[in-house]
Amino acid sequence: MPTTPTPIPGRAVRRISWDLLRVVAVLAVILGHVTHQGALLHPELTGYPFRVTAQFGAAILLVISAFFVCASLRKGNPRRWLWNRIARLVPAYLVAVLVTYLVTRYAAIRFSGLPFPPGVTGFLFGAPQGLPTDPSPWYIPTWADLLANLGMVPEWGYRFEWFYYLDGSYWTLPVQLAAFACAALLWPRAWRTHRVTVALLWALILVPLVVRFAVVPPSLEPSTHQKVVDSVFYGLGLHRAHVFAIGAALWLWSKKRLAHWHIALFVVAACVAQDLQVFPFHRALPQDAQRWPSTIGFAVLLLLVCLAARGPDWRFPGLHRIAPAVTWLAGISYGLYLVHQELGYILARALITIGVPGWLRLPAVVTAAVLAGWAVTAGVERPVHRWLTARRDRRRKPEEPQVTDSEPVFVGGGS
Questions:
Q1: Which of 117, 144, 194, 239 could bond to 122 as cystine, CB 3.0-4.6 Å?
Q2: Within a domain: residue 11?
Q3: InterPro entries in the record, alphabetically (predicted)?
Q4: Could you tell me which of 47, 65, 72, 16 has the C-alpha nearest to residue 355?
Q5: Tell me: the pLDDT tens digits for 300-326?
Q6: Is position 1 within any domain?
């Protein structure tokens, strides 16, 4: 094998279609959390000029992520690829968890009208004494919540009230890291033929549905056994396996390795799975206001993903004018996602306290989320990723090929 450097081909032109889809999806997540989910968790967070009840943005972001897993994983060593993903995602997440914990501790104690425990240790981990004086007290996170979120295991214990999510969006990172690890493990295997791959993708859609609704049917009043099953099912991310499957199937289709009729079946199956996994109790609970916009929104965005995967780039008249802004927002989408939800609720509550109306509060919260997302991206995600991958590059064997990591690496989440 030659040891002289090989020329790196020119970087492909960035496609605005993918960036636009990511921005639309992440904005749908943010608006849904701010205008709708926030009021469900904190009843005082109302008064916005509109409500976005649809839940499809996170699922679409995971579809796009799975598509680019296939596009980038085939370019080099799977272990190096997996390290690139971990180095980019985990440090920013850990910093976001610490910041969210500190801010939430302070804000929840203040909002609930409780005295601060004495000392630094008391503030960080102590339990405030007395009863809340505010009619809508906020949950005060504990050291157990902090450790569980740093360890990415809240899904395995919150049903038993052992610990809780510091931010409802954090469920996505352990799910996607598990998917990345499975992809890196399975990719180089000799038995991974085209037929086996397609069969595995269908299994990722169908098997979780069978487990969820046939093996252990869901219940409105789950028993201890049901809670254990739910913890395992959701902890392993089986409720979102279909979005990874359709993302990989779309990549195969984009490479003309799946027929049109076959990808159409995949799309229909993914839409059905999305509806059933997100709204399993729609006949028992009044969720139609969320269910139909969510399912239709997912289907429409999924069709647009199909167009982006197989069709030409979206160079529509006038789109080039906003392309830089769209690309910038897409580039900070992971950091934006990490800090927008719980910290956004805290900012919204603080603005309510000083009398800011909903029509001003909404743009203020969204703008603050964008600025905070940029700070996390520029201050943590990118520099730490460069540092960690550079350290690995220095230890890399001379004959090991260099792998670039220019594809989108957003971790979707939230609703």
A1: 117
A2: no
A3: Acyl_transf_3_dom, Acyltransferase_3
A4: 47
A5: 999 999 999 998 988 888 888 889 999
A6: no
